[in-house]
Design a protein that fits this description.
The chain is an alpha+beta fold. It has 16 helices and 25 strands. It is 28% helix and 23% strand.
């Protein structure tokens, strides 16, 4: 480490672009180097248990989808102490690629010179002109990176390799090596990957290095996992309460007001004095079995304050890192706002104009299947760089872990950045989802088919959260669970793209997190783009509904996109970054109807967004 050079970058640049193994431009020297290490300190803001679960999930998923192409991780023995969270300080340590190639700057010469040659003097040996770094490199999807040396067969009969230069046509297929002193010329050829692990994995099949300009985006992709970084002080009061199930369900069903730590306060008091009616929103005693205002049965009342109460949910849904707990605590944060609650607040304040505007927005969202929109003004997010890939950013390429911080260390470094930003958390209507599934005939094969017509929103929410948490191996159950997941993922991309358009921000500055078990997804903004989502929540709700309803109905690459790509491609739903599923398992057909080839549902008669408009 003592002989390494250093430069500085922002924490965001380090996390997303300049982790170990990447190539970095050193502007002050006019060269590029290979990142060898990142200076940083242990990130105490990251819960190591949650970090381990997120990394294990990501690596296991990658391993499954790439037939085991993972280097540096063993998920079978991974424990929280196997990893170390490092927060970059901005200092990047770098060196040159071994056997670095240089090129003569004289346009009439341009021969290549290796820094490893015994006669290397720092000048062109042919014309004594200055040298510059050769801009091409060899790389492979297993992670290997090499200087762009000519293959062994490139060798001038008269002059050997001494006066070779690249006849660059702009395409590797047609470019050639030529000798500057004679007419010798030969194609670039192909170079097999020399990595032993990679060669064994190929089982004798030919697999060759690729040539590229050093800063082409496909030479290096940092693999970043994002997750909600809630603090123990925010989670524990609810999770350790004797009423944790009721508390979490009251948040999920919307029967307790969002924000202002209402859920936490009631947990600390070890009881809920008042909740809102699940239908009309009137404040009623928690033990009331029916609402005194509208007469609607209250699903949680019979379960509270009973010694032998029936557990409504499986244990997996009421743990501290479950989707239900994450949803409930995010909804409970001090400055979180709910569209439904904001409408009620303005009604109580006699602000008629604002209340009517929010009512119109609420009704518009309801027509496209949205139950509530929550504005999280203090969204706690962690970016965790877990490794890197080359050539492509998704399986089946090799995923490689970063090297340990020093030769005596065995822990895998995870480079993290904890930020507070803003986000929309959008919860879909459970009853609307069931209606959509029934309309498309997707409930017919269930052994216990729900009576959709006889269920209200609260009944539907309880039924769906239990169904989605069911770990049954029944094929029909699994297929329907995956269908709902694909629906939520597709809608998340449509909302994200619409929010980017309406807020005027670059789509790459947004990301998504999926909470399918609670029928929700989160769209968050980057640290430097705070303000766009809150402005859309406060002033542009109706525009978002209009954009969501029409924006992705067609793709500029149709009919190819709809017929060959399952209705999802770079021209419509694919995100440049921030997709938790690598832009897989989504389709515009879920929103607007149509056919798919590789998704769970092959023919969607009525799109989700069109259900109430048919």
């Amino acid at each position: 480490m003592e002989n390494l050079n250093s430069t500085r970058r922002s924490i965001g640049q380090v996390i997303f672009r300049h982790t170990p193994g990447s190539l970095i431009s050193i502007e002050e020297w006019g060269v590029y180097g290979r990142v060898a290490a990142i200076k940083g300190s242990p990130d105490t803001d990251v819960d190591k248990n949650i970090l381990c679960k997120k990394v294990r999930w990501f690596v296991s998923k990658w391993k499954e989808e790439s037939e085991g192409k993972v280097r540096g991780y063993d998920v079978d023995v991974m424990e929280p102490d196997s990893l170390v969270a490092i927060r970059p300080e901005g200092k990047v340590l770098w060196d040159f690629i071994p056997k670095m190639l240089l090129e003569c700057t004289n346009s009439q010469c341009k021969i290549i010179v290796s820094s490893d040659d015994s006669s290397f003097s720092g000048q062109c040996p042919r014309c004594q002109s200055k040298l510059k770094q050769f801009r091409y490199v060899w790389f492979h999807n297993c992670g290997i990176l090499l200087p762009f040396l000519p293959i062994t067969q490139v060798n001038c009969p008269k002059h050997g390799r001494k006066y070779l230069y690249l006849n660059d046509t702009g395409r590797f297929r047609s470019s050639t090596w030529r000798c500057r002193e004679c007419t010798y010329e030969r194609g670039l050829g192909m170079l097999p990957c020399i990595d032993e692990v990679c060669r064994k994995n190929r089982q004798g099949k030919g697999d060759y290095l690729r040539g590229s300009v050093w800063n082409d985006p496909w030479v290096y992709f940092t693999q970043v996992v994002t997750f909600v970084n809630l603090k123990d002080s925010q989670i524990r009061p609810v999770i350790e309460s004797s009423l944790k199930e009721e508390l979490l369900l009251s948040a999920y069903t919307g029967s307790i007001k969002a924000g202002e730590n209402n859920l936490t306060i009631k947990a600390v008091n070890d009881g809920i004095e008042k909740v809102n009616c699940v239908k009309c929103g009137k404040a009623i005693p928690v033990t009331a079995k029916f609402c005194s205002e509208c007469g609607t049965p209250q699903p949680l009342a019979a379960n509270i304050n009973q010694e032998n109460k029936k557990q409504l949910l499986p244990d997996s849904l009421i743990t501290e890192d479950s989707e239900l707990a994450t949803f409930a605590i995010l909804r409970d944060l001090q400055r979180t706002l709910s569209l439904k609650d904001e409408k009620r607040r303005h009604e109580e304040d006699k602000n008629v104009e604002k209340a009517q505007s929010l009512l119109a927005s609420q009704e518009s969202f309801a027509r496209i299947g949205v139950n509530d929109v929550l504005m999280i003004n203090d969204f706690p997010l962690t970016y965790a760089a877990v490794g890197y890939t080359r050539f492509q950013s998704k399986p089946p390429n090799w995923l490689r872990a970063f090297p340990p911080l020093n030769s005596s260390d065995t822990k895998i470094p995870i480079y993290t950045n904890c930020i507070t930003t803003e986000a929309w958390m959008i919860q879909l209507s459970a009853h609307y989802i069931l209606e959509w599934l029934e309309t498309n005939g997707l409930l017919n094969d269930l052994t216990q088919k729900p009576n959709v017509k006889g269920m209200d929103e609260s009944d539907s929410k309880i039924w769906l959260i239990s169904f989605l948490a069911n770990e049954s191996e029944d094929k029909k159950t699994l297929q329907l669970q995956h269908t709902i997941h694909e629906l939520i993922h597709s809608l998340s991309h449509i909302f994200l793209q619409s929010l980017a358009i309406e807020s005027g921000l670059d789509i790459a500055s947004f990301g998504e997190l999926l909470l399918p078990n609670v029928l929700s997804f989160i769209i968050y903004a980057g640290e430097s783009d705070v303000g766009g989502l809150s402005a859309s929540f406060n002033q542009g709700l109706s525009q978002i509904v209009d954009s969501v309803s029409e924006q992705m109905r067609s793709c500029k690459f149709d009919p190819s996109c709809s017929e060959d790509d399952d209705g999802a491609c770079v021209g419509c739903l694919h995100l440049p970054r921030g997709c938790v599923e690598f832009n897989e398992k989504l389709s515009r057909a879920y929103a607007f109807g149509g056919k798919t080839k590789s998704l769970n549902v092959k023919d969607i008669l009525v799109g989700f967004l069109d259900l109430k408009n048919k």
